Amino acid sequence: MKKGKIIAIIFILLAVIIVGSECMYTTQENEYTVVKQFGKIIATNDTAGLRFKAPFIQSVSSVTKATQVYDLPESEAITSDKKTMIVNAYVLWEVTDAKLYTSSLNASSTTAQGRIDVIVYNAIKTTISSMTQEELIASRDTAVVIDATDSELDDIEINDMIEDENNTDVDVIIISERLRNCVGNQCDQYGIRIKDIKIKVLDLPDENKEAVYTRMITERNNIAAAYAAQGQSAAQIIKNTTDAEVAVMLSEAQAKADAIVAEGEAEYMRILAEAYNDPDKADFYLYTLQLDALEESVTNGNTTLFLDSDSPIAQIFEGIE
């Protein structure tokens, strides 16, 4: 009898524990809890704490509040200038309404990702189809800055683009923002929100890469040739200017040298004139000149002279004064 009572007490305690555990549930800080009764949602909780429910007839499920990542499959998109681009993107999303998320998607992240896939895929197609290939490539990693005078997005010219995040006079358009704007509130009906859409890969199809690379190389070579021609033209201008300056400087220097030589010769003649300013000195100077002329006449072994009797040199040999 005593043993039977002990067993009964044990069963009662187990029943109390089981019923007690069925009456209580806990909501964590990083989750929502959804309470269902006969499959119908009767309550949701988004704050942490201990709560009670009716045992056995009510069930509790949890939904994470954490930001989730969904990697979209790679796809092709056509730009406004009819260029094909390969796009690979990922989405950051979160649950904002646990009741709506559970009732519409059965709290399934896989089902939610299927809805996100369709919505974001259409947004990517729509956004890329409104941009040229150059605009798309330019806005992949940085903001595309458009002149504030451009009121229509589809009329953007690539030449108007600059990378200047500090310029307050222009409108900044980032591709991720355009994608989010295109998605809008389409996910609200599922109780989820897309926080961000990032382009992970933006590339050309393999069959187009070679042609595009060849065109890019040709364009860069043309730009390089233009720069080289400009440099050569500038160098020739500098050379011509320098040559002209050098010619002027040489001409001026030659003129100064000629003037100095002329002054020297004039001074030399003046000194000679002063030195031979009387008859005796003049005769001596003439005598030395005659001797110099005679010396030059008998060079190279030539010792024979034919002189006129009136020649001053002949008079020297004859001793005529």
Secondary structure elements and their pairing?
Elements: H1 2-23, E1 24-27, E2 31-37, E3 40-45, E4 49-52, E5 58-64, E6 68-71, E7 75-78, E8 84-95, H2 98-105, H3 109-129, H4 133-138, E9 144-147, E10 170-173, H5 175-183, E11 192-203, H6 206-275, H7 279-297, H8 312-318
Antiparallel strand pairs: 1-4, 2-3, 2-5, 6-8, 7-8, 8-11, 9-10
Helix pairs in contact: 3-5
Core attributes:
single chain, 321 residues, alpha+beta, Tetrahydropterin Synthase, Chain A, 3 domains, four-stranded antiparallel sheet, three-stranded antiparallel sheet, 8 helices, 50% helix, 21% strand
Helical fraction equals 40-55%
Count of β-strands: 11
Radius of gyration: 53 Å
CATH topology grouping of the largest domain:
Tetrahydropterin Synthase, Chain A
Oligomer: single chain
Note the main sheet. 4 strands, antiparallel
Question: What is the rounded distance between the termini?
Answer: 187 Å
Number of domains: 3
Within CATH, the superfamily of the largest domain carries the name Band 7 domain
